[in-house]
Amino acid sequence: MKALIYKELKLCLNPQILIFLFLSGLVAIPSWPSLTAFVYPLAGLLVLFSSSAANHDIEFAAMLPIAKKDVVKGKIILVLLLEMASVIISIPFAIIKVLIMNPMMPADQKYPELGINFALYGFVFLIYGIFNLLFLCLYYKNLSHPIIPQLIATITSSLILMIIMICFILLPGVSVLVNQFEGSGLYLQLGIFVGGIIILLISSFLGLKVAQKDFEVVDL
Predict the structure, then answer these.
(1) What is the pLDDT of residues 159-176, one digit of tens each?
(2) Which pTM value belongs to this model?
């Protein structure tokens, strides 16, 4: 498995994907919904699978002396590594927004949004989990139409992300509660954060099992 992950990192990554990952740093932009920055890493995953399909990566991996289920496992591990990388990259920029950008903003230019907190990353994990589940369940079912699963997973995840952002804009009371770093606000943040991690892990695991089952019967 270590060699397979090395293959994924060596052959499937390209500079364009890395650029999309670093765009999560746009979380630092003031007067901009923080969640929006994490749409770009999802677009990077589209590039990842499109590039893999163009380079016949699946056919190459299937010829290696490994089980077909390990081909899928290697890919989902790469996806999870990229998703975690986008989160880690965003953290320094999120700190800059909290400590520098937000204090410089005039009060009349601030508007209700999710902000920078544990809840933000909980929702990011939730969106990534939904993407992984939808994509894995659809992509390996029929490899002759790779674009459709990508579009369905990305559009669905982006719509859910937009709904979350709209709720925090239209329901400022929720935003005030979530942005509190003590009492019930902090408990709510931590609950969303832990819930997001759990959903990401469960969704990725279920997607992996479905994808492995489908890939076993695919004729390459």
Answers:
(1) 888 888 777 777 666 665
(2) 0.86
